[in-house]
Fold this sequence. Notes:
Helices cover 77% and strands 0% of the residues.
Amino acid sequence: MIRAFVPDSVNALGYVLLLFVGVVLPVLIFRSARKLGSRPLPISRSRFFRQTIIFQLVLALLCAWAAWVHGILVMPLPERPLISFGAAVILYLVMLATLKLRWKSRSSAAKQRLYDILPRTSAEFGEYVLLCIVAGVAEELIYRGVLTGLLQRITGITLVTVVTLSVSFAIAHSMQGLRSVAGIFVIALACHALVWLSQSLIPIMAVHFAYDLTAGVLIPRWVEAGEAEIRD
């Protein structure tokens, strides 16, 4: 059990993390996504993967520190493993089905944006797998773990906490395409629901990793198949 130095309140570190990760960072990413528009990434995918991995690790370490200082236990085992991991599998399958069903309705620009940030070569895929591992652990630790615990102490209202952080999480993924934000918001709500059901971050970390990895395999193939159909 983590010792709580500030058992029922939020200190300066907690407020800084909430402000930066919950507000400043999503706004900066949203503005960058709008500025970029439909143009390709200004850096290589390999560099994009490495920078994202390093940045998420740094944020995760800061959040782990905040969790320790505030006595937030973020990595307990699921209370009901069979139900928790069963729900995780169902959520994963629903997310994949939704991805497939919504694919044809996406604009060409949205498809191209996803294609630009997903791996195409074996070397890129190796880096992408590492990114999926880091993102699955770090993003859930940050958003569904530490920030949720901190903001809940401030608001005292679970619905406000969940909706606020789901909006923040969705906007922070604007680089995937501005039209994807609404869908990511719904996914974030489902992630919070799974954490509530399992009382653990472990099942949603597994879902996050599996979904990102599967999307990284499928989406480039879908885009290339679509381009082949147009040429034919």
